[in-house]
Structures are given as C-alpha cells and as structure tokens.
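Notebook entry, structure prediction.
Reason for the run: the old model in the group folder had no record of what sequence produced it. Starting over properly, with the input documented here first.
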Amino acid sequence: MKNEKIPNPNVIYPIAGYDKEIYVKPTIKNSNIDVGDFTYIADFDFESHVTYHYGWNGDKLIIGKFCQIAAGVEFIMNGANHQMNAITTFPFYTLEGWNMEPPEKSDLPIKGDTVIGNDVWIGQNAVILPGVHIGDGAIIGANSVVGKNIAPYTIAVGNPIKEIRRRFDDEMIELLLRFKWWDRSIDEINRLIPLLTCSDMEKVKRELKAIE
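New structure, fully documented this time:
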C-alpha cells in the first residue's frame, strides 16, 4: 500500500493536505444522488455542480465507481426543463403572484434519470444534460455539452457532443464490460494495477482472457 495506507472510499479528502479534490460519495446529502466508491471531483462541493434538481421531479443522478470528474463540470437535471407544448415556456407556477398550477409531468419534457457508468472521465467544464446515459469507461472532452447517450469506452467531445472513436476494439470492450474491475476488492485492484495501466493492448487482452 502507498504510504502504508489502505484506500478508503469513505474519506472526503484522498490527498493529504489538499482540499480541492474529494471523494464524492461521503459528501452526498441528497437521497436522489447515488455515487459509487472512489469517484472524485476536482472541487470541494460536489452537490453545487448538480443544478435544478428538485425533489418533486423524482429524477436521480446515478454515478458509478472510480469516475474522474474535472473542475467546472455541471449536471443539469430535469427541473431545468420548461413546458414546450404550449404558447409560452414561461414558468408562471414557480413565481409568486401568478395564477397557474404546476403543469402535469406529462406536459414537461422530463428525460428520466441521469446515469454515468464506472471509470468515466469527464473533462473540465463539461455539461451533462438531463436523462443522459454515459457508458463505462467513456471519456468526455472538456467544454462538451452531452445531450445524448454515449456508448461504453467511447471518446466524445464537442457542443453538441460527437463520438470521435471507440477506445478499444469490440473484443476488448466486451472483455472489459464482463470483467468489471471496479467491482473487485481493494486488494485485487491493487494487484491488477499493472494490468489496468498497461498500454500493450494485446497483452492486456491475453491476460484478461486468462483471468476469466
């Protein structure tokens, strides 16, 4: 173990003496946000990056394990959506003095839960729009606006988001999605680090097949 310390997903500050990077899970107060072990953000307040997340919508933000979230990333939730099937989009019902009851949920463009997989890297100032699903191992470029689902192990950038390429071939992606290294014990992951960080993909493929 590095510095004779065991990784602990329940500590807030994983870097001694540095308070601008936190493990997200132990800081969550909102029951509609679910974040996996060891996912971090380059900030000290994750929930300030989750906007328009009103309880009455019931939508959830679900993020897997070992995700890497850069500074300035914003998760926009369904509460940001206005009624679009009427003459005006103005939300009278949210403001004092206007004679309007809240619209039916069926009249609002609610997109459902936002789901981020495991081992996803989200670049600085990216914006994740409501209801988006980002697959395991994906990489989202800085300043991207993610308004559609992104497949596992895909690099995607831009506004609007565009998939640039798959990170690995189909066989490797299938192996990784079955292997699910993020679900293994801390001891096993520590032993796997030389494999997880190896750039020789053919060697990695052979070893993954042998482990299976």
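Summary: Residues 196 and 204 are 8 Å apart (CA to CA).
The old model has been moved to the deprecated folder.
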